Amino acid sequence: MAEAEEKEIRSNEESTDDSEEDESEEEPKLKYERLSNGVTEILQKDAASCMTVHEKFLALGTHYGKVYLLDVQGNITQKVDIVQVFGLYSGEEFHETFDCPIKIVAVHPQFVRSHCKQFVTGGKKLLLYEKTWMNRWKPSVLHEGEGNIRNVKWRGHLIAWANNMGVKILDMISKQRITNVPRDDISLRPDMYPCSLCWKDNLTLIIGWGTSVKICSVKERHASEMRDLPSRYVEIIFQFDTEFYISGLAPLCDQLVVLSYVKEVSEKTEMECCARPRLDIIQPLPESCEEISSDALTVRGFQENECRDYHLEHSEGESLFYIISPRDIVVAKERDQDDHIDWLLEKKKYEEALMAAEISQKTIKKHRILDIGLAYINHLVEKGEYDLAARKCQKILGKSTELWEFEVYKFKEIGQLKAISRYLPRRDPILKPLIYEMVLHEFLESDYEGFAMLIKEWPGDLYNNAIIVQVVVDHLKKDPQNRTLLRTLAELYTYDQRYGKALEIYLTLRHKDVFQLIHKHNLFSSIRDKIVLLMDFDSEKAVDMLLDNEDKISIDRVVEELENRPELQHVYLHKLFKRDHHKGQKYHEKQISLYAEYDRPNLLPFLRDSTHCPLEKALEICQQRNFVEETVYLLSRMGNSRSALKMIMEELYDVDKAIEFAKEQDDGELWEDLILYSIDKPPFITGLLNNIGTHVDPILLIHRIKEGMEIPNLRDSLVKILQDYNLQILLREGCKKILVADSLSLLKKMHRTQMKGVRVDEENICESCLSPILPSDASKSFSVTVFHCRHMFHKECLPIPSTMSPLQFCNICSAKHRGPGCAILEMKK
């Protein structure tokens, strides 16, 4: 029976009713469990009246006056039958018989120390017991006369107690009472709705009475305000009312845990009855409060309990909260990450549960990330979200081949292999080939495009290539023109290194990857007889490939293969000529006809750039086809400029082109022919007048113009001639000025240079006799001639100047003409 009752408290029992539990999406803040073992045995025969909590043990008092010491699991460790104060780990004890019932006992927080042997008792009086120097206990009355004292809390140097009138706080240092907080609702019986006290810290007291909550702060009074007042005072910093009657309080960080007694009206009897108690977490605000969470507790016998029957105790170190009722003790604790994950899984929030487990994987104890992930995948599959489930497999299954294969077979059973195909691992790990083949078969039966995509994306070593090739060949027997299957088969042949077969399929399909396949696998020997097919498919790429690999497929072989397709032959030879004018020189004669037939715009540039084409053959072809511009170029290149000029004037009738041609040839006879041909044609005369000025004297043309001939735009032409002449004169004058200035500058520079002295010493020799220029005996007279060119001679070694030309020149530099060596310097001694 007890075990069945223990199962009543579950993680989701805290909501106020079943409908709210189903609809609520807010996670509980606390989790609950019933304190069992020895407690269950005690409460079957007796009823709990009070309990205090230590971090290592619990002390439980019952209605029969028994006190039980329990461990934190609820096991009984010791039983006490009389009221006494004694040391658990020492031999000291205190026995006393009181003249009235004792309602409450509180010992000094540091009771174990020798100077802190104090405790207080509450009844009709508040008595302080102190140990004297003779090891006797001395009682003293701290307060009396305001009814029974039912609650006392001692923290640091402050004692707080509650009687029928309100709450008092005593400062043990000054032995003064520093405040009196009256109770708000005096209509409530203090014995039925007792006051709840709790110290949050050494200076903060929490008071709960009836439906009112007050949070009081003990502060130091300023010295200037003390006078006859206590050194400390109390300020109420928060005050608010709750919906239900308060049975207990405890702090939780900056929030409050409130145990409430609840009454409700029965739907059957329409009478007020006791409901399940509530444990609320409340956030105090300056003028109100905010409810963070609210849980209804199913404790044994709650229908018979009153407000005074419930108590709330807490363990500060572990944030444990004990809900005490006559027939039950429930432990509430903050939910850890495992509890949070449990709640998320219960609400089917698998994504959040998985994320929470990954973040806290070092601290969680109950859950494994893999288990949560597998549950998530199953949940998605059940919902029909197959693609999302398959995508999550990548993250959850990781590198486990066993898990991957298990999930693949599960997807196969539900007919969703296509969904997981995109996410199958392809490297680290690699699954069995059978897995990949099974997926490929699935696509091949229903989706050729999907099958082709997988073959393109998957490495060829994932599956048995020969098996897949055979299956594709079998399908092609049913549909031999299916381009998707043919393209896929070519890729499979490529993986299997059967490049020849792959190339044939690519060429048949005219597939863009054919050139990449040839380059990648060096298949040039396989395409010697397929050049026409390649050119038909993409002539630009084909020609570039052939020219880039002349060492593998020669120019002669390509030209031979294209012999029956002259238009393709021209494309190849034209690009070859563009790359190198000399490589295909033996085909230049052939190219003349090809250009004339398929690409006349490039014929003239070819004739200009080629140095190997036969001019007579080219001239013959151009004359046959009446290609005037090409014929003109060929005639001029062959030296027949007059015929070329005549053709321009007679065939093209283009004076500008004729003038341009005459300028290029720069031949006076051509200009004369041009003038003679144009003299009776006014438009030609106008063109000549506008362009001839810089090449031929315009007067020659003007004198030949017949009198009375009407020439269009004659005035403008004459003005242009005069302007061109003036421009020439200005240019000549400018050039002359520059030339004179430069000449003068250079003359001055030469004069300065020649005016400098010339060093003559023993190392210099006569350029004629080759003996030292200076005599060895310095006392002898000598005569030396030094030219400005720095050549030196003995005077007697120079020839005697003639009477016709008295100037003497350096024999070495100049014998007849005046030059830099004409002037001389003479040295005599």
UniProtKB/TrEMBL annotation:
GO BP field: cellular response to starvation; endosomal vesicle fusion; macroautophagy; protein targeting to vacuole
Main location class: cytoplasm
Family matches, as Pfam families: Beta-prop_Vps41, TPR_Vps41, zf-RING_Vps41
Domain RING-type: 766-814
Domain of life according to the entry: Eukaryota
Extent of Acidic residues compositional bias: 14-26
Membrane topology, record value: Peripheral membrane protein
SUPFAM superfamilies, A to Z: WD40 repeat-like (SSF50978)
GO cellular component term, pick one: HOPS complex
InterPro entries (UniProt xref): Beta-prop_Vps41, Clathrin_H-chain/VPS_repeat, TPR-like_helical_dom_sf, Vps41, Vps41/Vps8, WD40_repeat_dom_sf, Znf_RING, Znf_RING_Vps41
Region annotation (Disordered) ranges: 1-30
Localization per Swiss-Prot or TrEMBL: Cytoplasm, Cytosol; Early endosome membrane; Endosome membrane; Late endosome membrane
Function, as annotated: Plays a role in vesicle-mediated protein trafficking to lysosomal compartments including the endocytic membrane transport pathways.
Family statement: Belongs to the VPS41 family.
Protein's name according to its UniProt entry: Vacuolar protein sorting-associated protein 41 homolog
